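RECORD TYPE: inverse folding
INPUT: structure tokens
STRUCTURE:
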């Protein structure tokens, strides 16, 4: 992943923060089959890395991601099956990447410096948090080329209200960063020159917490969203009970009551 020719760049920023950057700027960081595989591999490595507490997902160049690589897709239409097998594999790999972000123990923050469209917008919607530059733009414009953004709709409909998601999907219109913030697609919007600093500050804020607490909290959050209300409460009650018995909860509550700074052991 490291190196100037890599599809995905990894940099450890210290204090438990790792930055992954899409690195196909000349192709508008289109999510080729190989780039999706690189993201998948990186997430698998990070998942078991106790030194990584927060992940920033960013991109090189002026575009965050234009979505699936349409040139790659078009090229596979010459296959004997018209591209069906490749399309199925590409959609499956993309879904695996999105689910890996959700399942990753560490929180993932999207650092969005420019346009994020189609599966690129899906990537932003999938991340736990997102910080956007004032120059960022978002769209799911598949409808404009006869290809409804059905898989991006999965993440988008879970990040913004249903009618807002449908408007983006049915019109394909681009929305600005401030609009995206109002919808809840991104958490905050900052001046372009301050984007990297602001994203890193947020990441370090989270990284300073108990990694054990953050990990079980992220998992519980995503698990309960798919459950009926009573089951969601039952699940989270069980999680909180176990959390209360953890060393970091004992330390944290003790530090709060004793008016001192906690010392996390991440267990």
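DESIGNED SEQUENCE:
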């Amino acid at each position: 992943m490291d190196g100037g020719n890599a599809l995905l760049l990894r940099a450890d920023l210290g204090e438990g923060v790792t930055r992954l950057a899409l690195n196909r700027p000349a192709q508008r960081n289109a999510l080729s089959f190989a780039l999706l595989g690189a993201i998948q591999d990186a997430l698998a490595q990070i998942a078991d890395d106790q030194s990584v507490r927060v992940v920033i997902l960013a991109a090189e160049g002026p575009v965050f991601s234009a979505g699936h690589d349409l040139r790659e897709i078009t090229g596979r239409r010459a296959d004997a099956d018209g591209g069906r097998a490749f399309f199925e594999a590409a959609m499956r790999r993309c879904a695996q990447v999105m689910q890996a972000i959700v399942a990753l123990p560490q929180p993932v923050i999207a650092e969005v410096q420019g346009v994020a469209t189609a599966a690129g917008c899906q990537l932003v919607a999938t991340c736990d948090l997102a910080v956007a530059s004032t120059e960022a733009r978002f769209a799911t414009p598949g409808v404009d080329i006869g290809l409804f953004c059905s898989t991006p709709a999965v993440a988008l409909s879970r990040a913004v209200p249903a009618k807002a998601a449908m408007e983006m999907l049915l019109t394909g219109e681009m929305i600005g960063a401030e609009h995206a913030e109002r919808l809840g697609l991104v958490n905050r919007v900052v001046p372009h020159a301050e984007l990297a600093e602001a994203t890193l500050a947020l990441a370090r804020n989270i990284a300073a917490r108990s990694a054990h607490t953050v990990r079980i909290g992220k998992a519980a959050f995503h698990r309960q969203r798919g459950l009926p209300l009573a089951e969601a409460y039952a699940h989270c009650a069980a999680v909180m009970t176990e959390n209360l018995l953890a060393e970091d909860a004992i330390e944290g509550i003790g530090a709060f009551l004793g008016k001192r700074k906690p010392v996390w052991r991440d267990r």
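NOTES: The chain has eleven helices and ten strands.
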